[in-house]
From TrEMBL:
Protein name: Pectin methylesterase
Residue span(s) of domain Pectinesterase catalytic: 484-742
Family according to the record: Belongs to the pectinesterase family.
Stored Pfam families: Pectinesterase
InterPro entries with a match to the protein in the record: ConA-like_dom_sf, Pectin_lyas_fold, Pectin_lyase_fold/virulence, Pectinesterase_cat
Keywords, alphabetical: Aspartyl esterase, Hydrolase, Signal
Signal peptide residues on this chain, from the entry's feature table: 1-21
Length: 807
């Protein structure tokens, strides 16, 4: 904006939400370069401001100066640019990593307390380098001590918001918050709020998250840190942390794909003023003939009236410039097709006319050739007795909810529920929608598929007349503790593994439950919480496969459940397990089919095992993914088991995780086949915990993984975690680098002792010859036989809890 537009009016007692405009230059033009400290006149209630209209950077120290290389290097160029009459600072990064700018102390002298907020507009700029961090720093003491509110700019689908901190020269990504769209060459308003030990971060006035840390107390000053990310910054303001921004948030933002006559979209709106009291808001539809809007308190209902699109705009009462929107895409009303395709008995599953269909099974319809899914349309399930609609499944934007667990928690995930497999359309109903011993019929809209043929006829939809009806079987006895799962047999208790887990979670916590899974491919996301002594045994290690394509940018983070049944927040692991002692996984394959580990994709666990004293046993099994294959906590024993991945594919805060007689296989990097990977990232909470132990195991590689390309572990770089990893009597292929371990960042402890850090004993080649470990990094330690003894048997590894599991 031009300087004349920067003039704002603020009430003396209250700082308004227009804090971005809190710097103003006097009427008549910018200040001369000789007086940069007077370049900005701050509005009442603002302690510091900078809008770069002076045309200089004289109030800033451009680093490296004073040792920026302790965290990284800075070789970029900072300039003041002017576009469309507005001046801002731009930093062209080069290969910079570290603190690249810090405010001079005298410029920040007006800030007397550490309880302040700092806001700025920041624009990431693509500079074709490998990394992507960009941080706005507060309480900056020096290049080695600061807090940072950061953008991790990957792409529009998988960028993240994070808190970083540097403390005593150790850099830590302290907290990651949910994935959101952040793209290059677009301005974002960032706000970092520091009040006591609580730090909060906002983007565009949305509270992203908070965390508590007491490392850095003083007010310090402001700074900028990056890792290979060019940026522009403007309109920096600092004020009292007690003054909040005007907030307006929706619990269901983004797009709404609805249809005429379908269910309403109900949105909960949170609106607050700067003093955190309730604010008013307005809402309007750009086309009321397409979407009608009804507001009742903080609840807004959207009702689809006709086919088309409309933008629903929410506007803050205190700050009309603050707006949120929902894009509505409305399809025509669903109509039952009158088409008939003859006898469908051999073309559907459940078979048309079946009297024993599974309530937890998938629906399949076989076409004459592979069908093509459109992005619109739906499959619907109706109760036959009264034509009541019980479920609607769409080709995109779907989710599912599993549970509840015995303690009332659910796992909700974004999850495609339709797929094409060969000539078949395969559809998974939403979990729990179908009741037992009930008759249903299936309908498909005519616009769901493109150019499809069914029984020799062009597909024009499926209705009641087509005859795909079935009756679900009676429910298994509630007291049943030995359950069978089969994806196509007729004598099983359940079609899905999750169906059996839901059954188990309704039984008393200590009651043993055995789940036998027949050969087959089970396309599932799984959830188990609060239920001990569950055993899942496959019929065949290779032919019993539980798999799904779940990943960070589809379901961000890790979770063991939420206390409400919403289809999100359930995390990226295929199997999420929490507070479940003595879970046994035997003779099967658990696979995350996610292929690429970067870009629009991301981390993709097979299992997330969370607990404190809980135990997991995995034997004669395969765990296959790429990045972050296993995320383990508490205690676990992997025996005669394969674990495959490429980056940090075994990680977590385990107290003791033993891999005995197992194969640890590095796979070819999906983004660059010339690279290797990292086997482990240990984040052990206590120095005395055994951590990750590999006993009589083999480190192998997929064909194509280069020699010397893979390291045993890399550190999280945090003083709060210990890098406790031990290899005992293990064999290693030539893909393991001679140095063994990765030193960026440095491990904790920086030099291993006999009881903590990176250690190994009697490592050998795959052929059994003693391995030359003379090139290992100095931070690692070779153990003597006596020092290795506490890791040489499973009894010793689990001695802290007196556990001696048996094969």
């Amino acid at each position: 904006m031009a300087s004349s537009l920067r003039q704002i009016t603020l009430a003396a007692a209250t700082v308004s939400a227009a804090l971005l405009a809190a710097c103003a230059v006097p009427q008549g033009g910018s200040q001369p370069a000789a007086a940069p400290s007077a370049a900005a006149q701050c509005a009442p209630g603002i302690w510091f401001c900078e809008n770069f209209e002076s045309g200089t950077l004289a109030r800033w120290d451009l680093l490296p100066a004073g040792g920026a290389a302790t965290i990284g290097k800075a070789d970029g160029v900072a300039i003041v640019k002017t576009e469309a009459g507005n001046s801002f600072m731009q930093y062209d990064a080069g290969q910079s990593k570290g603190v690249v700018a810090a405010l001079k102390s005298e410029a920040f002298a007006g800030v007397k307390t550490a309880d302040y907020f700092v806001e700025a507009r920041i624009k990431p700029i693509n500079n074709q380098t490998s990394n992507k961090f960009l941080c706005l720093l507060g309480r900056y003491q020096d290049v080695n001590n600061w807090y940072g509110g950061c953008l991790n700019v990957q792409n529009s689908a998988s960028s993240k918001v994070e808190f970083h901190k540097a403390n005593g020269g150790k850099w830590l990504r302290a907290r990651q918050f949910p994935t959101r769209s952040i793209v290059n060459d677009q301005w974002y308003k960032l706000r970092m709020e520091m009040k006591g030990d609580t730090l909060s971060f906002y983007i565009d006035d949305d509270l992203t998250g908070s965390f508590t840390d007491a490392s850095i107390k003083g007010p310090g000053k402001l700074g900028l840190w990056l890792d290979n990310r060019s940026f522009a910054i403007d309109d920096i303001v600092v004020g009292d942390a007690r003054v909040k921004p005007v907030l307006l948030s929706l619990d269901q933002p983004g797009e709404w794909n609805g249809e005429v006559g379908g269910a309403e979209r109900v949105i909960e709106v949170s609106a607050t003023k700067t003093d955190s009291s309730a604010d008013s808001f307005s809402v309007v539809s750009s086309d009321p003939k397409v979407v009608a809007v009804t507001q009742q308190g903080n609840q807004v209902s959207l009702r689809a009236l006709s086919a088309g699109s409309a933008s629903i705009t929410f506007k803050s009462g205190s700050n009309p410039a603050l707006q949120r929107s929902v894009k509505a895409n409305i399809e025509p009303a669903f109509a039952l097709s009158a088409a008939s395709y003859g006898n469908l008995a051999k073309k559907t599953e459940p078979a048309a006319g079946s009297k024993a269909a599974y309530a937890d099974g998938e629906l399949t319809l076989s076409f004459d050739a592979p069908p093509v899914l459109n992005s619109i349309g739906s499959l619907r399930i109706f109760r036959a007795s009264d034509d009541q609609l019980v479920d609607v499944i769409r080709p995109k934007g779907e989710g599912n909810v599993f549970g509840p667990s015995s303690d009332g928690f659910y796992r909700g995930v974004n999850m495609p529920l339709m797929r094409v497999v060969g000539n078949k359309l395969v559809v998974r109903p939403h979990n729990g929608k179908l009741a037992y011993n009930t008759a249903y019929y299936v309908a498909l809209s005519d616009n769901l598929l493109k150019d499809a043929k069914l029984a020799g006829k062009p597909f024009t939809g499926l209705g009641k007349k087509a005859g795909w009806s079935f009756v679900t079987k009676k429910a298994p006895a509630a007291s049943l503790t030995r359950l069978t799962v089969d994806d196509d047999g007729s004598k099983a208790d359940y079609r899905s593994v999750q169906g059996a887990l839901d059954h188990a979670m309704k039984l008393p916590k200590e009651t043993p439950v055995s789940i036998s899974v027949k050969k087959g491919s089970y396309e599932e996301i799984l959830f188990l919480r609060g239920k001990d002594n569950v055993s899942i045994q496959g019929e065949s290690r290779e032919a019993t496969v539980i798999q799904f394509d779940n990943y960070e940018s589809l379901n961000t983070g890790l979770s063991i459940g939420m206390n409400k049944p919403v289809a999100s927040g359930g995390g990226r692991a295929v199997f999420a397990v929490g507070n479940a002692d003595m879970l046994v996984i035997d003779r099967l394959t658990l696979k995350n089919t996610h292929y690429k580990r970067l870009g629009v994709n991301g981390q993709a666990e097979t299992i997330f095992f969370m607990g404190d004293k809980e135990r997991l046993i995995a034997k004669n099994a395969n765990f296959i993914s790429r990045q972050d294959t296993l995320q383990l906590n508490a205690y676990s024993w992997f025996y005669n088991t394969l674990v495959a991945g490429d980056v940090d594919f075994i990680w977590g805060s385990s107290k003791a995780a033993l891999f005995e007689n197992s194969e640890i296989r590095t796979v070819v990097d999906s983004t660059d086949a010339s690279k290797g990977g990292y086997v482990l990232q240990a984040r052990v909470s206590n120095a005395a915990d055994k951590g990750y132990v590999f006993l009589n195991s083999r480190l192998t590689r997929e064909e194509g993984v280069p020699d010397g390309s893979t390291v045993l572990a890399r550190s999280a770089g945090s003083p709060n975690y210990f890098d406790n990893v031990v290899f005992v009597n293990s064999r290693m292929d030539k893909h393991i680098a001679p140095e063994g371990w990765w030193l960026n960042p440095l491990p904790n402890p920086a030099k291993a002792s006999e009881k903590a850090g990176w250690r190994e004993y009697a490592s050998a080649t795959l052929q059994g010859a003693p391995l030359n470990v003379g090139g290992r990094v100095a931070a690692a330690r070779g153990l003597s036989a006596a020092e290795a003894a506490p890791y040489a048997t499973r009894e010793q590894v689990f001695s802290a809890i007196g556990w001696a599991p048996k094969p």
